[in-house]
User: Fold this.
Amino acid sequence: MENKNKSILIVLGHPNLNSYCAKLAETYSEAARISGYDVNLLKLKDLKFDYNLNFGYDKTVKQELEPDILLSQSLIQKADHLVFVYPSWWASMPALLKAWIDRVFLPGFAFAYQKHSPFPKQFLKGKTARIIITMDAPTWYYKWFNRSPGVQLLKHGTLEFCGVGKVKVTYLDQIRFKNEVQLKKFIEIIKQLGIKGN
Assistant:
């Protein structure tokens, strides 16, 4: 039985708030909320922050964290389950989502390097995640020819690196070839995920 007390953060990584991805994020959010979960929907396009990590992780130079970056970190800390909704562009993710990851998943917040070890201290343990990715290519092409770079980056290179466990992926493929009925079937799939808080 699902824990209806858990908090879910949905991150919309598409810069167009009228996109199909936006509709998917809204669908998941509404279904989860109706099911009784504590839900927050973060639309990255609405946030105001410098897209550049100007000094990398140089401790001698401080880059101020804007209110929307601090808000993002607070929502991540609060959440038990993270849901990312974004399109595959050039087999990866929109620049908006990558910029947000660069600015939010910082040392001291999401992880910490350890001396003499390639493995970090992980500060996001106990959380789970779902990646919902849309694409024009078939899933098999994305996985076997492109080798899933966008998913690899987010799932392994970011979330699991910081301690998030059980990162599941939902691939919604060949979007530009789908008719209205088929697109509605994808919406229903996401609705069911929202209902289950999965």
User: Anything to note?
Assistant: The CA atoms of residues 25 and 85 lie 6 Å apart. The radius of gyration is 17 Å. The first strand starts at residue 7 and ends at 12.
